């Protein structure tokens, strides 16, 4: 990079804890950098995400730019022959998160800027790219300050706490930010979506379809091939999902206690309060953090 190369600093917020903490961290530690904060909005985000971003804006004393594809979810659904997004066909992230980002930074790259994008991968996570620049984006650089500076999960909590932000409110019931109907949700989270945001649950239900009546012959249920959302209208099924989840929590607590005991010795106190359920939900279900979701959506 030549000395006088123009540099554009950007930091994407997902509505999740790590990117928000990174924004606070960068504003505190690198005030000389003129960072533009942005949020790629699918139009189907949780209300708690917007609330959190508003509070973060106050803390940063800077607006957070909302970028989007200019088209709504239904438009993109039609473009994909009405095939709803799923793990193996995650067109939602591409069309509604990644492409708007690429479109937004394109003029800067064309004008000869180096674009530096800061991503909230922590030091205690497996290394990931975040976003992989393609051939035409050779002046896009990804930086991971938390990974470089040794900031781990507890560090993220501390940053958010010290900024008076705390965690986004959806962590009370769900493990990730992102769309209300995200297919990465677990059954317990669908149950809670119905309890917390019944209108969003009904909207998700309205997208489900059966081969006999759907225009493309597809059967699609958000929770998996055999369980439409309407099954959550049955109190017995809801009670069963809650009971199953409780068992997972209990198993996870025991495992954590065993690990701690092994680390600290037999006489160590093992009744520490643990951050469980939503913050540890991926670990509880034996998944890497994020559970396969793109960091653009949840980080
Ligand atoms: S949050 Fe889920 S549904 Fe929304 S764009 Fe990301 S992967 Fe797709």
From TrEMBL:
Domain Phosphoadenosine phosphosulphate reductase: 9-126
Domain of life: Bacteria
PANTHER family: PHOSPHOADENOSINE PHOSPHOSULFATE REDUCTASE, SULFATE ADENYLYLTRANSFERASE SUBUNIT 2
Protein name: Phosphoadenosine phosphosulphate reductase domain-containing protein
UniProt organism field: Vibrio marisflavi CECT 7928
């Amino acid at each position: 990079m030549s000395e006088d190369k123009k540099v554009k600093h950007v930091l994407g917020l997902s509505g999740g804890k790590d990117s928000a903490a990174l924004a606070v961290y960068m504003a505190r530690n690198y005030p000389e950098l003129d960072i533009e904060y942005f949020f790629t909005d699918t139009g189907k985000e949780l209300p708690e995400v917007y609330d959190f971003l508003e509070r973060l804006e106050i803390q940063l004393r800077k607006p957070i730019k909302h970028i989007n594809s200019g088209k709504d979810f239904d438009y993109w659904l039609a473009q994909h022959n009405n095939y709803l997004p799923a793990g193996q066909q995650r067109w939602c992230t591409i069309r509604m998160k990644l492409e708007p980002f690429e479109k937004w930074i394109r003029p800067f790259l064309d004008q000869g800027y180096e674009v530096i994008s800061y991503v909230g991968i922590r030091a205690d996570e497996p290394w990931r790219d975040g976003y992989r620049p393609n051939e035409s984006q050779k002046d896009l650089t990804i930086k991971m300050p938390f990974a470089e500076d040794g900031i781990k999960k507890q560090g993220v909590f501390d940053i958010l706490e010290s900024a008076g932000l705390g965690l986004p409110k959806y962590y009370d019931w769900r493990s990730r930010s992102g769309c209300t109907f995200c297919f990465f949700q677990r059954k317990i989270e669908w149950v809670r979506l119905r309890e917390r945001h019944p209108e969003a649950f009904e909207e998700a239900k309205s997208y489900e379809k059966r081969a006999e009546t759907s225009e493309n012959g597809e059967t699609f249920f958000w929770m998996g091939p055999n369980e439409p959302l309407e099954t959550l209208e049955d109190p017995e099924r809801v009670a069963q999902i809650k009971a199953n989840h409780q068992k997972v929590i209990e198993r996870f607590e025991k495992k954590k206690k065993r690990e701690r005991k092994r680390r600290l010795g037999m006489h160590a106190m093992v009744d520490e309060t643990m951050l469980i359920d939503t913050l540890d939900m991926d670990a509880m279900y034996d998944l890497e953090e994020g559970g396969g979701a793109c960091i653009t959506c949840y980080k």
